[in-house]
Amino acid sequence: MSKIDGIQHGDHVKVVKDGKEFFGVLMPTATSDVVIKLESGYNVGFSPEGLHVSLVEKRAHVAAKRPSRSTRPELPRLTIISTGGTIASKIDYRTGAVTSQFDAEDIIDAIPGLAEIANIEGLMLYNILSENMEPKLWSELALCVYNQVREGAYGVLVTHGTDTLGYSAAALSFMLQVPVPVMLVGSQRSADRPSSDNVVNATCAAVAATSDLAGVFTVMHENASDDTCLVHLGTRTKKLHTSRRDAFRSVNADPVARVKFQERSLQFLSDRIGRGGCELSIRPKIESKCALIKFFPGANPDIMNFYLTQGYKGLVIEGTGLGHVMSEWVPYVKEITEIIPVVMTSQCVYGAVCDRVYDTGRDLLKAGIIEGGDMLSETALVKLMWVLGQTSDREEIQKFMRTNIAGEITVDESRTWQTFEELP
Amino acid sequence: MKDHDYVKIGLKAGLEIHQQLNTTSKLFCSSPTDLKDTKNATYEFYRYLRPSKSELGEIDRAAIEEGIGTRRFTYKAYASTGLVENDDEPPMEMNLEALKIALQIALLLQMQPFEQVHTMRKLVIDGSNTSGFQRTALLAVDGKVSLRSGPVRIDTLSVEEEAAQIIDKDVYSLDRLGIPLVEIGTAPDLKTPQMVKDLALTIGTILRACRVKRGLGTIRQDINISIVGGARVEIKGVQALDLVEDIVRFEVLRQLNLIKIRDELQAREAHVRDPIEVTSIFARTGSKILKKKRVWGVLLPGFADLVGKEIQPGRRLGSEFADRAKKKGVAGIFHTDELPRNGISNKEKEALLQFLEAKKGDAAVIIADESPKICIEAISAVIERAKKAIEGVPEETRRALDDGRSEYLRPLPGAARMYPETDVTHIALPREIIERVKRHLPEKLEDKTQRYKRDFLLNDELAHQIARSENNQLFEEVIILWYEKDSGITKDEKKDAAALVVRTLEGVIAELKREDVPLDRLKRERILGVFRLVRSKTISKEGVPEVLRLLAEYDTKTADEAAIELGFIMLSESELNAIVEEIVQSQLDFIKAKGVGAIGPLMGVVMKQVRGKADGKLVNEVLRAKVLSVL
């Protein structure tokens, strides 16, 4: 609104409309409307027709105060890497809607309880909503986590938007082998409200990040209450509700642990790798030209050809039930698999694909499809991207896709020829 | 105090009226707006709240005092509770039904609506809102109403969400959360307690002309009160209109006494020392309250006898100290003006004063708790209040007690508690919409009363009663249907019909309610059905209460079925003739002996058989004819 005679938002102004006067602070808007904050705190809006705005007083510059933090030598060191998202969002005057504007320091200010759990170091990598995360950013993020762990972080918290939290967690799971816990955490209700779940989620994530774990995980509310959070394996995490705090679930696996918020305690719920149980290493390379295709009744198989002609290097088909597409697709699949790998997952979300049961399935197997087992479709896509970043050998690709790398797939070792030689 | 005395001390009072609107769904979600029995809660969940910053980066002082994120709130939810109430889903757009009613109220109060409605979040972190804020939008400003004593300015009208109902400490029920309400704020133009009450009454009458909820708890008043030399104090949550005047009187009394105390404290050069732990003095105390606890105290030089001075009936300056300390988690305070008591001996009192190096004219306050942190917070709160006593009356928000007195609630909230509701886009209210609402404003209750007298021939009392009732819509529906279907209706029949409908809706149904008959099954259609039976002379008006009762008890029956089951279907004239004939024949000797005088006693005998099935007037005519024919 700087258009009005050099008046800026934040200035005290007088607004005259239809002969009535209003005094308040000029607020930024995305339109030509004028919005002022009255002394009572209410915002009121005026359309520009017949409106007169004049300056009463320029805004006073107020420097933001930050509480000084002291380190406590007895506490471990945690790094918080901020990527944006609801956990760190407040109003954006450009659009009037909520966008990511906090950095790691803001998160620490907002959640003072973190300082009682660890000495926190904040690092802002991105400030984006999670729908804007993309594969090359996963690689950068993995490198950032890697550096922090190499420099001695006892654990890492990655604050992340919830929409694609599962994808990023899967990507980090494949790219990184970490001897410490890496916790991806978000919030479903924005940080600018007193009821935000950011405090509970981040606190529980910090508890989990200082626990006896190694690997990449997600931490979110267990249910509607603020009492507990669940720790999920990064490759098994799925967002199953648009808005609820407890939108996240472990799919085809038990949650790894439950964290009690008030008690700051953690209880393990399934097998895990303990802290220091592996070496630190990183393989951040990724082939992002992969696609996830959802099959639906009557879907035209041409879509696969489209991807092929666009130079895609791998496909995941989210089929029906045990992993099916209509018979008409089979010849197309056969042609495509001769050029690029095609992985089959199920849109059922829960359960594994099994293409030995029905004819279409057997035909698909013959056509060269790779069964995705009980992998989430999203995880299978990320895995395919990562595998293609590591190798272009068709047999290796097939083998990697069927091998459990980061807990993403259930494989029965006594039933695969791959390990036949090693069987007793 | 007389009215002119209030004017002399410069009483300035204003009202903030909160009235629930009678919409089908809530302000920002589609859940119903009826209240539930907590027993029927289907699940509960637990949350914490913490103050968040305003868009200008400030944190509201009232919000800070309410909590620092350590209170665990329990929320009781019902089958009809949705994710918006649980703060697990973004709100829907504003309910336009609520907006329209609010606009009607604003226009009836001669206010000027804004051309845009911006929804704000008003920070409230006492747990009464799952989100930690109440959604509110300023709709109109600058109205007025006229009282006998002159005009009063109406400053603001906002549409907002009702808070959740508190049912225990930190336990809330979600049925009430989100019901639309209007908040009407008046200017501080009221100069006497009487004027405050008159204004509440006048606005209440205007509200009842609109679609608002009725009954206890659906309207609440907050009263802003100040006197010259005092301070603005907001007293919240006055539900009964009868209390309004007492609240004002008692608050004026409190401020006058606090001013006297201030003058005395200043004359004595009173001051407040720093807090100090005094646990050792009570090491072997006989007081159960202090035993095994940390005790902290503060010396108040110059405060002797003033801490114990009454400022409202039964409430002393010490009570004000205690209010503040209780907010920090202790059960209360002790001060030397009231010691010895509760097992604290005079010896301990003297030891305390000596330890604190008290001189004559000094007072001391102590508090106790297991936690040193709570002790320090509580004694600091007392110190803060004691310092304010030297300055005079502190600005604050107080809670109304049932008897007209009040207790400290929190500091006055500031503008910092307002944050834009980013999940809701603003609503444009162009002039055409406002003009349209203006053309169809609800009828004022005085006008409605006059119309009922004129059109439906009701007497003053019944017209007044039904006009003010929430049943007035139903009344009009019934009676218009009745008149239309019965073209040959006479003036007297019209009058009787209208009176019957009013007495039924206002009297009979209220009577059933007193007898705990469940009324929720008495839906509009079923009530209409009962009157249809009366109109077609299928049942007599005497049968109405029993049919209604049966309908309330069984929701499967229609009005016709209920009437048949009760045997209330009207007898035809020949059936009535036969019954009367039989009775007359069996009583021939009696009739012969008594002559026309037999009609009275026989009327009772006949009515016993035909009550509810025949109109009394008709029975009398038939009986008279029969008796005369046998004489």
Explain the overall architecture.
The complex is a heterodimer of chains A (424) and B (631). Helices cover 22% and strands 25% of the residues of chain A. Chain A has nine helices and 23 strands. Chain A has helices at 104-110, 135-150, 165-175, 198-209, 302-309, 329-337, 359-366, 377-390, 394-401, and strands spanning 12-17, 20-27, 34-37, 43-46, 51-57, 77-82, 89-91, 98-100, 119-124, 155-159, 176-177, 181-185, 215-221, 228-233, 237-239, 248-250, 257-260, 265-268, 281-282, 290-294, 314-319, 342-346, 370-371. In chain A, the strands form six sheets. In chain A, strands 9-6-10-12-13-14-17-18 form an eight-stranded mixed beta sheet, sandwiched between helices. Chain A has a five-stranded antiparallel beta sheet with strand order 4-3-2-1-5, with no helix packed on it. Chain A has a four-stranded parallel beta sheet with strand order 20-21-22-23, with helices on both faces. In chain A, helix 3 (165-175) packs parallel to helix 8. The model of chain A has no long low-confidence stretch (mean pLDDT 90). Chain B contains 20 helices and 23 strands. The N and C termini of chain B lie far apart (77 Å). At the A-B interface, strand 2 and strand 4 of A face strand 2, strand 6, strand 7 and strand 22 of B.
